[in-house]
Amino acid sequence: MKSRSFGKIILYITLIIASLLAIFPFYWMFVMATNPSHLINQTPPVMIPGAELLTNFQNVMATVDFFGAFKNSFIVSVSVTIGTLFLCSLAGFAFAKLDFPWKKFWFGAILVTMMIPPQLGLIPQYFIITELGWLSDLRAVIVPGLINAFGIFWMRQYIKDSIPDALMEAGKIDGCSTFRMYWNIVIPSITPAFATLGIIVFMNVWNDFLWPLVVLQDSASHTLQVALRSLNDSYVNDYGMIMSGTLWATVPLIAVFLLFNRFFINSLTQGAVKG
């Protein structure tokens, strides 16, 4: 009993230390966002929050169109997330439960694309966007991100393991069309997969910098990450202002993660088959 209690104590201490190490960067970002630069640059640096959070954020808004960029990032992230969840789950359902010619070949080809660095497709994608006349248009960021290989792979594996073939056969006997089986049987059963993929996609799109920087050339169409780049000056960096913008840009990510993470946990007990 003493050995078991000692092991629990060590486990809890380890978890507390790991949690503090994980939280510290966010705390340090908050401290920097609430203090002027001269306190941040002093040695040793200030370690407690200050009273300059509002002032630093006012400097951010005076430098860039923060709320306009925030709106653009929100539109892009939500559109890409919804589109990815629908299209990837539809493709994953097809690869998991339907039979069609060369199914294994096409699925393997999709997996191969996961090994190709996305930077290699930057130039051909840019030419396509230019030909379509979408430069400085949010469609240039939304449309290419609506489907991805990882999302198809993730949905295919989840649907294959969580949806029994007997349930699909029962749907066919009841006269369900293929799309109705997807809509009425598959979707209610894969909410945990939706939540997990939704978190990943939303965070990746929200934090994306390279592709929006290339195609969104007009400042009015900038996403938040591209707009925050303007806070860096060539000669003088106001770290309080930079961290204030970064802090407020991080808040939606934390909110989305907490919301979908709780939804994911609650969805683990749900399913189409109940024994």
TrEMBL record:
InterPro entries, A to Z: MetI-like, MetI-like_sf
Subcellular location: Cell membrane
Protein keywords: Cell membrane, Membrane, Transmembrane, Transmembrane helix, Transport
SUPFAM superfamilies: MetI-like
Domain (ABC transmembrane type-1) ranges: 70-260
Superkingdom of origin: Bacteria
Membrane-spanning intervals of the chain: 9-30, 74-96, 105-129, 141-159, 182-206, 239-260
Major localization class: membrane
Membrane topology term: Multi-pass membrane protein
Recorded family membership: Belongs to the binding-protein-dependent transport system permease family.
Name the UniProt record assigns to this protein: Cellobiose transport system permease protein
Species this chain originates from: Shouchella xiaoxiensis
